[in-house]
Amino acid sequence: MTLDKLDHLLDNTLAELQARGTRKGAEHVVTGFKAGEGGFGPRCYLAGYGERPFLRMNSNSYLGLSFHPRVMAAEEQAVQLFGAGPGAVRFISGTYGPHVELENRLARFHGRPAAMIFSAAYAAMMGVLPPLITEETMVLSDALNHNCIINAMRLARPVRKIIYRHLDMSDLEAQIRTCIGQATRVLVVTDGIFSMRGDHAPLHELSAICRKNEDRFVQGIITVVDDSHGVGAFGRTGRGVEEHTGARADILVATLGKAFGVNGGYVVSGRPVIEYLRETSPLYVYSNPITPSEAAAAVQAIDLVDEEEGRDLLARMRQLTSRLQQGLAAQGREIIAGEHPIVPLMIRDTAKTASLVHHLFAGNILATGLNYPVVPKGDEEIRFQISASHTAQDIDYVLAVLDGFTG
Predict the structure, then answer these.
(1) Which of 56, 60, 309, 386 is the most buried (most CB within 10 A)?
(2) Which active-site residues does the annotation give?
(3) Which residues of 341-377 are buried (b: 16+ CB within 10 A; e: fewer)?
(4) Predicted TM-score of the model (pTM)
């Protein structure tokens, strides 16, 4: 047996992706970092580009905590105590003190009775939804939800899945009513911050609609929010969409790998839900957790967000976000404005998006171009992401490079 026939098929598929302009291609490899100097923030080095320094405008580390001395020191100290990896899944011998400390800290941070960590936020969503979806469950999902939600629904195979129009609460309520008599349980699942646009779910309206209709279903309506881009970067104290809207999800999924600057995913909810998931979620039961040292680092990151320094970082990030938005508007460019540090520059053309990404790279700027099918046709964009580690000079530099684009 050989792979010849399959290789031919896969080569053709890759060629089609290339022709459509949607092939991601080879990944840039970060080989090191350079500290900020002369009023500019940190730069990174890439394999094959020598000492050429690049400005990262596509990092999820919104508060710049990946390089915070306290976060790094916590990880270094824990790795000396516990080693480089957990060595087993949680229920065998892979649960360490820092894992339990982190789960308790996350529960307090979100004001919930219990929390549970996963190897990644993607794994968290894939591990949370299927155990909660029965053969008598209907799932309603926002049209622009993240790929992890889409694939979790596919894995779960609910009796029916319904896609409601993006942020359209009237459509959501109408779709809920079509489920009456057709299901015993309804799950409404949404991103908190939508990662391609930086807009957010109106959780207060969504929750009110679900409360109004939950008595129509034997097991009620359960709200599930993935706020991976919101927690730590949105809301007055970094509590994400829940804090911004003054509402709360029944089950909240988020990440440690974005604003908190470390790695891993988690879920917070009531104690029965968390204990049930510990017993039934295969991505928890059969997968190693994050390392004990990562858990220790994450505890420090959460503590920092809760301190005055965290408030200062949030304020700085928002100021820089506003500076970029105002600069882009002054250039006559179309953006989706908001308070979140994702700043989408709408291009609405695949070829032009790719051309602008190349132009930015030539100017030593790393930015992500999003094309179909990652975003709908006509919504092609450059997604800029602001970090508190950026400076005003960094933002002005990006604007100057953009101003020179004539493609």
Answers:
(1) 386
(2) 195, 229, 258
(3) bbbbbbbebbeebbbbbebbbebebbbbbbbeebbee
(4) 0.95
